[in-house]
Amino acid sequence: MAVSFSFSAKLLSFLLSFPLIFTFFTHATIFEIHNQCPYTVWAAAQPGGGRQLKTGQSWILNMKPSIRSGRVWGRTNCTFNSSGQGNCTTGDCNGLLQCRSSGSLPITMAEYTLSAIDNIDYLDMSLVDGFNIPMDLIPRGALGIRCRADINSQCPTELRVADGCNGPCVVFQTDEYCCIGTHNTLDKCGPTSYSKFFKKYCPDAYTYPYDQVNDPASTLKYPSGTKYNIVFCGPLEA
Ligand SMILES: *[C@@H]1O[C@H](CO)[C@@H](O)[C@H](O)[C@H]1NC(C)=O
Ligand SMILES: *[C@@H]1O[C@H](CO)[C@@H](O)[C@H](O)[C@H]1NC(C)=O
Ligand SMILES: *[C@@H]1O[C@H](CO)[C@@H](O)[C@H](O)[C@H]1NC(C)=O
User: Fold this and answer.
1) Of 66, 116, 157, 161, which residue is most buried, by most CB within 10 angstroms?
2) pLDDT for 190-207, tens place per residue?
């Protein structure tokens, strides 16, 4: 969890380093989350909560205009009781169906910062903290980011966990993999054999902590008010 937060903090400080004027907006952002997987996914959003999505089901998430940034991911093999308390094998958020905190790793994560600068939405997909479910992040009418590979079945043994594939930082906790300490600078934080493994399968996703700076093409930029589809196990049928 600490890894996700520091990653988002890095992204935010990167975005804030632009010498542009801040503007405020009134467009509500809509995420349409679809489950095309042959199994049930418990979709999660922080902020936003969570919902069980059986195969073919969708969840339309209208973000309040005050929401500036957040993340969307999926959870596997969950059990919740009637009060919405229980657990999941991956992506669990403190045992709650309605997430109020980040998911436990590994997760395939869609991240967004809405209208931080000049009414533009910034979105990306991160595999820095590992992978659990194939995901597409598609702005309405555009190609977006597609990460459909079955990474779990290809996952190196040392990263493999139930229902997922861990990022190397979580497993090895080294400066090199986590880009901390002696590796906490742009020139000392580069791709590793593990990040290249993830990049090979999902070339448009971030795969190590400074990837968003070294690979700016992987950040989607769309005008605020754009609708976004997040599809587990795409493609989305018309
Ligand atoms: C749901 O599970 C939680 C945690 O185990 C428990 O405290 C609560 O009483 C349960 N609720 C119901 C309705 O079973
Ligand atoms: C997850 O929830 C199930 C069903 O309530 C329970 O049997 C199991 O012990 C829980 N596992 C963990 C790790 O909390
Ligand atoms: C859920 O758990 C079962 C039993 O361990 C496993 O066969 C299945 O692949 C898991 N589902 C997902 C989506 O990982």
Assistant:
1) 116
2) 999 999 999 999 999 999
Any atom of ligand 2 within 6 Å of the Cβ of 80 = no
Measured in Å, residue 87 CA sits from the centre of ligand 1 at: 12
Buried b (16+ CB within 10 A) or exposed e, 110-120: bbbbbbbbeeb
7-13+27-232 topology per CATH: Thaumatin (2.60.110)
| Distance from Cα 132 to the centre of ligand 1, integer Å | 27
Q: Tell me the C-alpha distance between 109 and 70, whole Å.
A: 10
- CA of residue 48 to ligand 1 center, whole Å: 22
CA distance 105 to 89: 10
Question: Whose CA is closest to atom 6 on ligand 3?
Answer: 163
Three-state SS at 169: helix
Q: Is the CB of residue 87 below 6 angstroms from any atom belonging to ligand 2?
A: yes
Residues lining ligand 1, Cβ inside 6 A? 81-83, 85
Closest residue by Cα to residue 125 from 237, 234, 238, 16: 234
pLDDT in tens, 39-75: 999 999 999 999 999 999 999 999 988 899 999 999 9
146-159 residue pLDDT tens: 999 999 999 999 99
Global pTM value: 0.88
Confidence at residue 20, expressed as pLDDT on a 0 to 100 scale: 43
